């Protein structure tokens, strides 16, 4: 394997490790990041850790403070509300194009169907003892459904904007922290979104998108409020 490929693979691994530690709350929102400590924890030099952190900065997962260092991003309830509202606007704007694309493009239709099916199977298999990687896959399937949906718009720029509004941090307030029933309810909403697309019912599609975003925003906001109470009470 070429040297560049080895470095890229190592950076990918470190990124995955940091995401895993955020999911498991080893690294908490607002916590200062010590590059040396992470390099020891992950058994690598500091260079790939720094490069991985730079990538996570571009993904809005890590923040960089000049002359102060880096920290895991914190999110506020107001930011949650504004971000989900912005995402909803993106999803609603292209409903007609997305319905048209899915009706003519069998591959895109199958991608959406497979995502919903595989995501449902994953959630049904989850237990409190499941490895953390399975909970990260839960996030991955959720994120990919929305990416495939927006890909059907035919607008490349909208995918870049969606990546900037990455739901990774927000999703971590949900996945691994709510019941299997609520996780299944979320993917069932994906299924109903897909049903509306396939039946070419644009009004129903808009209704389902609004419901899906509202419920996600509410769930994350509620967990954030509980976290604030725990911190205030020193729990």
Sheet of most strands: 3 strands, antiparallel
Q: Identify the quaternary structure here.
A: single chain
Assigned CATH architecture of the largest domain:
Up-down Bundle
How many DSSP helices?
A: 11
Rg (CA only)? 19 Å
CATH level-3 fold name of the largest domain: Four Helix Bundle (Hemerythrin (Met), subunit A)
Keywords:
Four Helix Bundle (Hemerythrin (Met), subunit A); globular; three-stranded antiparallel β-sheet; Arc Repressor Mutant, subunit A; mainly alpha; 235 residues
Verbal overview:
This protein has two domains: 3-72, Arc Repressor Mutant, subunit A; 77-232, Up-down Bundle (Four Helix Bundle (Hemerythrin (Met), subunit A)). It has 235 residues and is mostly helical. The protein starts with a helix and ends with a helix. The model has no long low-confidence stretch (mean pLDDT 88). The chain is built from eleven helices and three strands, in the order αβααββαααααααα. Strands 1-3-2 form a three-stranded antiparallel sheet. The protein has helices at residues 3-23, 35-42, 46-58, 77-93, 95-104, 106-125, 132-151, 156-164, 168-171, 180-198, 202-232; strands at 32-33, 62-65, 69-72. It is globular, with a radius of gyration of 19 Å. A hairpin with a 3-residue loop joins strand 2 and strand 3. The longest helix has 31 residues, at 202-232. Helix 2 packs across helix 3 (46-58) and helix 10 runs antiparallel to helix 11 (202-232). It is 73% helix and 4% strand.
């Amino acid at each position: 394997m070429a040297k560049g490929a080895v470095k890229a693979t190592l950076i990918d691994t470190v990124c995955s490790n940091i995401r895993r530690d955020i999911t498991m709350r080893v690294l908490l929102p607002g916590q200062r990041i010590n590059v040396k400590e992470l390099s020891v924890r992950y058994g690598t030099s500091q260079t790939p850790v720094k490069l991985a952190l730079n990538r996570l900065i571009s993904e809005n997962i890590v923040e960089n403070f000049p002359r102060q260092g880096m920290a895991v991003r914190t999110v506020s309830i107001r930011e949650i509300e504004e971000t989900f509202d912005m995402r909803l606007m993106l999803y609603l704007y292209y409903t007609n194009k997305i319905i048209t694309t899915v009706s003519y493009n069998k591959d895109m239709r199958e991608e959406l169907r497979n995502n919903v099916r595989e995501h449902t199977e994953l959630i049904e298999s989850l237990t409190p003892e499941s490895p953390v990687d399975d909970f990260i896959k839960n996030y991955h399937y959720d994120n990919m459904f929305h990416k495939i949906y927006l890909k059907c718009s035919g607008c490349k720029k909208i995918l870049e904007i969606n990546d900037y509004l990455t739901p990774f941090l927000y999703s971590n307030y949900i996945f691994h922290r709510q019941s299997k029933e609520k996780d299944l309810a979320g993917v069932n909403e994906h299924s109903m979104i897909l049903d509306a697309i396939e039946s070419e019912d644009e009004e129903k599609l808009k209704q389902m998108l609004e419901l899906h975003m509202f419920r996600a925003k509410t769930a994350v906001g509620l967990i954030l409020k509980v976290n604030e109470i725990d911190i205030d009470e020193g729990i």
